[in-house]
Amino acid sequence: MDVAVIALPPFAELYRQYRTRALAIARRIVGDADEAEDVVQDVFTRLAQRPTGFDGRSSCSTWLHRVMVNSSINWLRARKRRERLQHEHEPEAPASPEAQAVGTEMQRHFEEALEKVNEQQRQVLWLREMRGYSYPEIAAMLRIPEGTVKSALHRGRQRALAELEERGQQP
Q1: Can you tell me the distance from the alpha carbon of 56 to that of 100, in angstroms, rounded to the nearest whole number?
Q2: Buried b (16+ CB within 10 A) or exposed e, 14-25
Q3: What would the pLDDT profile of 123-134 be if each residue is shown by its tens digit?
Q4: pTM for this predicted structure
């Protein structure tokens, strides 16, 4: 079924009538006034440059509300991606010799405690704690359900911590 595209009011009228409401929606979602302004400007710029897809099945304000919500959510997702990429490329400060020694000692104790857990728990603990893989990644690598990863991780941690405590070593 073809849906006819309905014309929106002239752009200047649309902007004048809905800008304040659009800004409130964006500010509530993105949590920052400056970024909310950027989202609103982006949405209205897109509306001014190309056809909208407004089909008239809802009111103009309802349609614009949905456009603002979706655009704000997409803005948040993009911000999170940018932050994650930025943190991945930041150089880490070199550790002091004392911190390196403590880290090496702790790793040695952890590896010794790992010898006391079963093979599956050892693999899961190593992949999660030492390599930083997520639960789904570990499940895919080991070809086991994600729930099994979680329980093996929990049991392995308990066993490794008990082993460290028996030796009088702090985790």
Answers
A1: 65
A2: beeebeeebbeb
A3: 888 788 777 788
A4: 0.46
